[in-house]
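Form 7-S
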Amino acid sequence: MVSLKQELENNVYPGRGIVIGLTPDSARAVTAYFIMGRSSNSRNRVFVTEGEGIRTQAFDPSKLEDPSLIIYAPVRVLGNKTIVTNGDQTDTIYEGMDHQLTFEQSLRSREFEPDGPNFTPRISGIMQIEDGRYSYAMSILKSNHGDGSSCIRHTFAYETPLAGEGHFIHTYMHDGNPLPSFEGEPKLVEMMDDMNVFTDMLWNSLNEENKVSLFVRYIDIATGQYDTKIMNKNQ
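Output:
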């Protein structure tokens, strides 16, 4: 297990990141999603609530340049499933699973983002709570060592998660030109019972210059009720 705080503090540009896990008291499922930006277009964003999920929105619409890869719904809820992703594949997963496809099957129609030479990975997560049982899975679609002609697909499924454990996946190993894609399995990280403390830890650990927005949700496994916190650098 690695320290999520240290992972974030020691990486000025992990890009976008998803955390999913279980609180130490085993009572609540946890997810967090953050976005960062190096360009003015990427930084000109906020998270806003949309239905049971969220959407990215231009903070200053007059400065919005290219919305194609930065305006999307990172979080949507389909019945007892919560979908969290770093792009418009949220909708692909939602529509696929609504038509009885699996999480993995739904993503077969997608690959990494068309933003060469970075070819930013598409990272996705799915949480399912049913009859007091909780499981989750994470996916990454990335280029083959920066070669845009080849897509690598990894899915990691976590059944019956252990108390206090979570997993963290992000788009880039570190800052660079081009940006190097995430490698390996999602990182095993510690969860917290206190949502406010967890949110503050994440937000304060992200690089001050590059961080843009953060979403955190705690879902009660017994009832399905949830609490959400959103942090936006642009106010």
